[in-house]
Amino acid sequence: xxxxxxxxxxxxxxxxxxxxxxxxxxxxxxxxxxxxxxxxxxxxxxxxxxxxxxxxxxxxxxxxxxxxxxxxxxxxxxxxxxxxxxxxxxxxxxxxxxxxxxxxxxxxxxxxxxxxxxxxxxxxxxxxxxxxxxxxxxxxxxxxxxxxxxxxxxxxxxxxxxxxxxxxxxxxxxxx
Length: 176
Fold this sequence. Notes:
- It is a single chain.
- The protein is of the alpha/beta class and 176 residues long.
- It contains six helices and seven strands.
- The protein is globular, with a radius of gyration of 15 Å.
- The model has no long low-confidence stretch (mean pLDDT 94).
- It holds the Pfam family Methyltransf_24.
């Protein structure tokens, strides 16, 4: 569900901006690249940067994941390699990845990494300066839910007194 919603939002952003230049999209929390594949197959106008440290379990996943981090990285690498220059996978922390990108260089972000409050807050602190300021951009993410109070708190702190759009599957988003 969030996959389709994110495609719709990216198409809307691209259209609002004239539909000419590609959008630079950062996905924080790639895992096996399921969302990455979906976006790259349906949005030929994006350049996707995937960020994931592949550290294994950080005890923030609600279910049980038996997939070895090396296997997850290998699967995601395959997804990104299929799309050549349109996709790059950064197997590193959010902090390390953000340090490699210029401020004001990205058009959209999807935050779905570590779900603890300090992690989500840090992701906002690291990535919001990277958003372009000369045009409209999209901020989005996953797991805005009572199950993840840290996500909810960090999002509210990021948008004090401002609206946050919610959709099925616990996705949050706003244009800015």
